From TrEMBL:
It holds the Pfam family NAD_binding_10. This is SDR family oxidoreductase. It comes from the Bacteria. Residues 7-192 form the NAD(P)-binding domain. PANTHER family: FLAVIN REDUCTASE-RELATED, UPF0659 PROTEIN YMR090W.
Amino acid sequence: MKALVVGANGQIGKHLVTYIQESEKLEAKAMVRKKEQFPFFEEKNAEVALVDLEEDIDSIAKAAKDVDAVVFTAGSGPHTGKDKTIMIDLDGAVKTIEAAKKAGVKRFVMISSFDTRRQAIQDAPESFAPYVAAKHYADEWLRASDLDYTIVHPGLLTNDEGTGQITAGMDLDASEISREDVAKVLVACLENDKTIGKEFQIVNGNTAIEEAVGDL
């Protein structure tokens, strides 16, 4: 299975491409927006597509035309304004969903926020609410699509070394999880069709990732 990693130059995206390339079942195609970002992925023997997520649907669909799955890991980041949150976390996600449909790609895995339900928007701090709202509507768009989707809701992201062990489910207490382990969860989702049509939260825990994902 070849997977297009959207947002490949992000912290989770880089880990994901690395783990995919180490998998015997998967191969990665990295979507990045700058030529100078190519070397990291070329060193992993990953195919690279040059597409800015703010381009049109056709540009993203062209990158997805020869893949079997799309993984959306892109994010505007904590230091941008509400405009980029809308353009990347909401519109970028929606365009990628539509591009997958246009390219005939059924499998779609989405990295979301820990809780994107309506109440979470109301409860979020003023500075964080636009991000939660963007993720809420992006998730809604994906659920309403005819794609074979999985939505992953990670806890507070850290750069700690991954443990390979998590807790997965819904209505979990908010806690931390390393970006490395999030990337490994994404690989497990791609490798396990039982995750199709499901969404779940993940935080640090004591269950091996493959087991935790398989038990959903």
